[in-house]
UniProtKB/TrEMBL annotation:
Transmembrane regions listed in the UniProt entry: 143-164
Lineage: Bacteria, Bacillati, Actinomycetota, Actinomycetes, Kitasatosporales
Name the record gives this protein: Integral membrane protein
Entry keywords, A to Z: Membrane, Transmembrane, Transmembrane helix
InterPro entries: MT1774/Rv1733c-like (IPR039708)
Amino acid sequence: MCGGEAKRKRLWRWRRNPLRRRVDAVEAWIVLLVWALIAVGGTLAGLLTAHAADASFARQRAERQPVRAVLLADVPQSASPTQTAYRALVKVGWTAPDGTSRTGETPATSGLRAGSSITLWQDRDGSLTGQPADPADASVESALYGAGAAVAVAGLAYGSGALVRWRLDRRRLDEWAREWERVGPRWSQRTG
């Protein structure tokens, strides 16, 4: 018997009730829709975003390759005596995948001399690019992107639902005010 009462309380918005207004039923369906969007839409957005990010990182790992570059100039020392690790832009030369010699600038650690070799990353065109994320870092970053997308969809759905429910509350209050204007004068009559 107790289980039946609990079930009725959970579904009170949909049960027949002479005091239930149309606005109450609309609100019940909106709440159901919002939670469905949060559960299904948030999960779907998170999974799709994580999959797309993971595919992008895999594509970067496939397209980028390491290359040995030679410093064409000395890396200047830090001007500050307290700063031990310093990176400065320095001119480098490397060979592109098509065999042509290229030059460009890249940050390098201070203290390196011209002629030193460093490892850089290049794309298919031979342009310098950043090092791609390793698979473990890419997985973590993809998961964070997916979680962010899920939270964004859930927040948007919840915020939209809250706005619609606020408007329904305003409408409900206006209906109550109109009914009170109609019924209130009859209650305030004095007998006697």
